[in-house]
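so the lab meeting is tmrw and i was supposed to have these ready like two days ago... anyway. pasting both below. for each one the top line is the aa sequence and the line under it is the structure tokens. i havent really looked at them closely yet so no promises
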Amino acid sequence: MRKFLLIGCLLAALVLTSCEQSTSGEIEAAPRVANPKADVSVTADVPFGTGVMLSTTTEGALIYYTLNDETVPTSGAERLYTEGKLVSLGNTEGEVTLRAIAVKPGWGNSDTEIWTYKVTSTAVPVPTV
């Protein structure tokens, strides 16, 4: 019986990232972290110096992000988001891509969220959500 539970957990881990054995002996998928949100969530033209705040509704989760990088952020990413701080989109005209993922030990990672902004010197500030 244990052999089948182990195989089931391994298969679930491949598909769901993580799993746990319940007290009844059944394999259960670990909960998933809620996707990160950006307070400037619309894909829009934004003025120089615009900053974006990130959040997730999963208590205790950490958010990792990348800027103008094709890589998917991971828990090993260089940029760990600090709650309440703004992620600067910069002061250079052009397209900026922000990618973020939320993680929590023992939970399945969130999906990667992607926002694309066009930074310009003439854009009108975008209201935050």
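ok protien two:
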Amino acid sequence: HVDGLKRDRRPRGGGAGAPPPLEWCTRPRLLSAPEVLTWRDDPPGAAAVAPLLWGLRPDGRHPSCENSQVTTGERRCGQVGTGGGEDAAAFFRWVHGLATDGDRRMVPLGDLAPAFDEGVGSLAGSVKRSVWHMTFRPTWSEVRMARPIAEVSRRRGIDARYVADRLAASRLPLLSSHHFPYFRNHPVVAPLLVVDTRAVFVGAPPGHQLAGEVWTSTAPQVVDGAIRVFDAVWRAATDPHPDGVPRFTRRMVDVAFLLTDGASDREIARSMGVSERTVSHEVGEIIRRLGARNRAHAIALIGDAGP
């Protein structure tokens, strides 16, 4: 609960009464007792951003606080919102605004494809504890590009989470199997990658003015907001494998990647270190499970099975 959000109005400028420089405190949490949260240095747009991070409406009130009295100097509200969708939309509006304004907390990495292609190996190698990935309807080529991260995600002791909406899973029928058992379905506002709860990578959905670009941040405000949003989405998401069995096996997924690269059965067998007969069996099973007419149709469905 939040008892009040007050701004410190003590003199600035380093005098006797001036507060020391502090980072903007936005660590989201539920407070067990009334507590005053104080911002001593207002970042750009703080008045608008603070309510968004707490799940409040732009007027400073949480949707559940219809009878709250809110003023500019003090905001009193009931329980902080924990809804995944609403909080996610607010968070992405905030970080996209920071990126647009050139805020130093958001470091631009340029276009998604070259940035990811160049840095995915080192990024995967840096993972120590966790990798949380939320993606907005990826293409098969993007899934292929991110394979090093998927491989790390399957290591013992790694807290791996991957979220995509149902349309993404239906268009890419092997996506959920590729990320089994840490794949879940939930509507996604924009791409988000959180590594070891210390570094955040943010993109924008198609149609957005920032679409196709990616930013990274280790700023505590951005990381804490991303963690809160991802955790809320993850808890609200559904597991498409309730019986604990993926639609396609790990080897089928590996074969599928090579199939869509245009490899022959012999080339796939050589690459995977198995017999050509084994590959032919796996290809036939992929075709059957996809309901494809033939090999070429299966390849088309793997890349995009949607309308």
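from a quick look at the 2nd one: The longest strand covers residues 159-164. The chain is about 40% helix and 15% strand. will dig more after coffe
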